[in-house]
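Task card 7
Instruction: Convert sequence to structure tokens.
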Amino acid sequence: MPSDSAHATSHSPLTRPAVALFALALAVGAGTVRLNSTNPAAQVAAGLVDPAQVPQLVDLAREALRRDSANAYRWADLAEALDFKGDTIGARKAFDRAATLSDQIPQIWLRQTNFFVGHNQPEDALRTAARVLAIVPDYDTVLFNYLDGVEPEKIAAAIAGNPRAMRSWFQYQIARNHSEAAKLAWSKIPDRGIKLTSFYVDYLVRTGDLDRAVRIWSDFLGDRRGDYPRRNLVYNGAFTSEFLESPLDWNIRSSADFETARDGNSVRITFSGAKNVNYANLTQTVILPSAGTYRFTARIMTRDITTNEGVRLAIPDLAVSTEPLGGTTDWTPVSIDFTVSAPRAIGVALIRQPSRKFDNKISGTAFVSAVAVLPVR
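Output:
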């Protein structure tokens, strides 16, 4: 990109080193900047990074503009030079001219946004920022930083017709733990998808907004929710649906030492016999809506499981588990009763603890089905 690209002004929320780096990054490809009268545009570029080094900044900007008066970058350079010298009215007029000439050049609109932010003109900043957001995603974080002082409702209204920007703004609010702004952005996103839904659900679980996490997840599932969460706090407890990438669905971590896969209405775990496996690779986050006693149940079947340590149903968060099932067994119901003192999220899992016996390399197959967590009435 030529040196005509955007430079942030001294009024920017960015620190001085960040302004310099931003300007230099946008000037990649311009070559070495030498201060000489034959290239006033290059001198202006250097001066906008550090105006103290170029006291004749405005004169140079005017000379560069005289040589190339239809260039939007030259008008933006003049605007920033005037701004550095305190001529706010002249700077605004120059930026208006740059914007008129720039059409689809996002760097010009970014520089003008920076100017408006520096002069506490949030409405104008939002207008120009929205235009940049509509053209490219490259400056999303910079622009959202600029707009942090603007009312979220106004930002949402300005970018409502831009689903990509709304998704990006939503993720920005999550990253900064701005839960109310994130909630607003979420309500404006038309097509959320599993990845964005899982991203939000994970945030809500981590921040303790458990009721909303369940509601968002249930709404996303629609008809796929089955008996969740009214009759079973475990989603997809019968393993009838393909697993989704969400903390509130089953998560399987792969390994070369065993295979975990759906098998009809169950999950099958096959141990290779190569290692003394520490298995905790079938898990789901379950949200308990209130204090009280709950029962965690499942059915487990085993085929030729070796070693004294078979498979267990477990709640690692609470350090509780069933006795291990090994050898060969038909479908066996197993359960754990547990009590919590407040609403919370827990992880449920099928596990196998390492054996302390000499002959400890596990082989064989285990199946788990009909997993449920319900309150004990």
